[in-house]
Amino acid sequence: RAGDLHQAMALAQSLIAGPSAPQGLVWLVGAGPGDPELLTLKALRCLQDCDVIVHDRLVDPRILDLARRDAARVCVGKAFGAPSVSQAHIHDILIDAARAGQRVARLKGGDPFIFGRGGEELAALRAAGISVHVVPGITAAAGCAASVGAALTHRDYADAVTLISAKGRGGRLPLEGRALADPRQTLVIYMGGAAIEAVSAQLAEAGLCAHTPALMIENGTRPQQIVLRCALNELAALAKAMPLAGPRLLIIGEAARGADAARIESLVAMAGDRVAA
Ligand code: SAH
């Protein structure tokens, strides 16, 4: 009406383009140890809301089935012995998707901040100016202990629980030089499945009694869960005799003695053929 054709064209074009593309964001979401019922409501809401799910190999397929049906799924899984996507590449995938305006769920096994490199992803996203939120998850220690009724702390026998990784940077065993021999402490060892002999030797060297009760839980909270309960000095030989079929968690200390034997036997019976083999 003002006769300014040039400005009218610009105005019309901006109305056609709509509001400027929204900035995407990333949720670092804990998927828990496997059982889909151990997801938090917040994690479920994220899965149903996000445009892209970037997930680890550790995430149970039944959980991925709960995600928005049309969400893109990107596996950046790290599996022992298999080639994996580098951490820097994972950061790039998350940053690029968010910059393209997508809502991204970075779905990780257990809790994102317990041996999940969630801290590194959080820092990289923040440095790139991407908004990022964290949804905690049930860590393997809590899920596995619950599945066999082993209380990780108890006023009678354990005042402390230590979550520790058997895999450090550059192949280092982070157990070295730590106070591991306290009999009133429960040790929960992550990523110890492949290095079980070295782990057991290190625990013995640290002064832990050879008869300390030990549990090895493979595929905790999943249908194929198996549990081995023995003394610390038997652990490596027995665990090595069982073919590795999933993530393994070690629980060492009096807490392991308290594990529900009937429950363990039924789990082992379910996995019968494999254990017999
Ligand atoms: N962020 C995860 C841990 C990632 S490190 C968490 O909070 O649980 C991977 C290690 O976690 C595995 O090597 C194994 O020791 C342990 N783990 C994860 N899920 C497991 C499961 N369902 N059963 C047994 N161990 C599990």
Question: What brief labels describe this structure?
Answer:
277 residues, single chain, binds S-adenosyl-L-homocysteine, alpha/beta, elongated, 11 helices, 35% helix, 5-stranded mixed sheet
Description:
With 277 residues, the chain is an alpha/beta fold. The chain is 35% helix and 19% strand. A 5-stranded parallel sheet has the order 3-2-4-1-5, with helices on both faces. Helix 7 (196-205) packs antiparallel against helix 8. Bound molecules: S-adenosyl-L-homocysteine. The site of S-adenosyl-L-homocysteine has 24 residues, from helix 6 and strand 10. S-adenosyl-L-homocysteine (SAH) is lined by residues 33-34, 58, 108-111, 114-116, 139-140, 144, 190-191, 193, 217, 219-222, 247-249.
**Distance, first to last CA:** 86 Å
Helix content: 25-40%
Strand order of the largest sheet: 3-2-4-1-5
Number of strands: 10
Short structural summary:
With 277 residues, this protein is of the alpha/beta class.
